[in-house]
Design goal:
By secondary structure, the chain is mainly alpha-helical. The chain is about 65% helix and about 0% strand. It has a single domain (about 80-310), classed as Heme Oxygenase, Chain A, CATH 1.20.910. The chain has helices spanning about 20-40, 50-75, 85-95, 105-110, 115-130, 130-140, 145-160, 170-180, 190-205, 210-235, 245-270, 275-300. It is globular, with a radius of gyration of 19 Å.
């Protein structure tokens, strides 16, 4: 995402705990601008004045935002199963019953969206993409051995198994280049920015490390169906196979990733410490909750109405 870095001295961001309205939009745009630069590799002399104070200020604001999200999704985590098998069944059921699943937006994209509408959709999605590979790399730090090994296998796939042409991030970049997508915080809906900001916050703060596990895991589990619909739409609109390969690949590969993630990461982490189940559940639901809000906002843009026959 090409946006300007936040300059000046550290200041206290307002509206961090708001989840809707103008204050919500303002905070998400400011945080998105900051996130563009926060992980950029630098030399010591390139670090801006006040960087440490700015990071502390935004860290506090991120935590306030995540805690507001935890309160918002709390009813969805009531009565979680206490045993490992029961929790895993609950987690896997999110694929069908979680927020945003079966949204009619995706059959519309596959079957009827115009080229301009598809481009607008991708504009939002590219902006909200926080980089699965980087989020995974941060999340796996100091994780238990078995979970860490599966995260490493997943990361290796994200890296194209050592071949640049197979790296997933650049695949999306090639599609963005084909559509000439250059989103900024000013021209992207705040719901999409909030999704990316949340994923970064969960990975960035170690207190939310297991939340990040849940959020990343539910992406792997729910993405294939949506990716398949988007790929169908891109193919219908004449987008070359090499340019739409990102969605074609994720419609298939993430099915295997999800099965391994649930078995090797979610199951083993909860078996080792049952308290982690609540955090994993919250992280997964935060990701789905944001996704559902994005889909609703996109449907308003396209003037779509919910009809059961359209369900994905």
């Amino acid at each position: 995402m090409k946006v300007n870095a936040i300059g000046g001295t550290a200041r206290s961001p307002r509206h961090a705990g708001e989840l809707q309205g103008l204050g919500f939009a303002k905070f998400q745009r400011e945080l998105a601008r900051y996130n563009v630069t926060r992980f950029r590799a630098q030399l010591p002399e390139e670090a801006p004045d006040g960087a440490i104070g700015r990071e502390a200020t935004w860290a506090r604001a991120e935590i306030e935002f995540i805690e507001a999200l935890r309160r918002a999704i709390a009813p969805l985590t009531a009565n979680l199963p206490e045993d490992v098998d029961g929790f895993l069944a609950w987690f896997e059921a999110l694929k069908d019953r979680g927020p945003g699943q079966g949204d009619p937006l995706f059959p519309f994209l596959a079957e009827a969206a115009s080229l301009a509408q598809m481009r607008w959709f991708l504009w939002q999605e590219v902006a909200g993409e926080a980089g699965f590979d980087d989020l995974l790399a941060i999340t796996q730090v100091k994780m238990p051995e078995q979970a860490k090994l599966e995260m490493a296998r997943n990361f290796w796939d994200e890296m194209g198994r050592g071949f640049a042409k197979g790296m997933h991030g650049p695949m999306l970049g090639r599609l963005a280049g084909y559509f000439e997508l250059t989103p900024s915080a000013e021209d992207v809906v705040p719901e999409s920015l909030a999704l990316g900001n949340t994923m970064i916050a969960l990975a960035r703060h170690r207190r939310y490390a297991f939340h990040s596990v849940g959020a990343l895991g539910v992406i792997e589990m729910t993405a294939p169906t949506r990716a398949g619909f988007v790929d169908r739409g891109l193919r219908r609109l004449g987008v070359p196979a090499k340019k739409r390969h990102y969605f074609a690949l994720h419609a298939v590969l993430d099915v295997k990733h999800s099965q391994a993630w649930n078995r090797e990461v979610v199951r083993t982490l909860v078996a080792e410490d049952s308290r982690r189940a609540g955090a994993i559940a919250e992280g997964a639901l935060m990701r789905l909750w944001h996704g559902a809000r994005c889909f609703e906002r996109y449907r308003r843009e396209f003037r779509l109405t919910m009809r059961p026959s359209q369900a994905a």
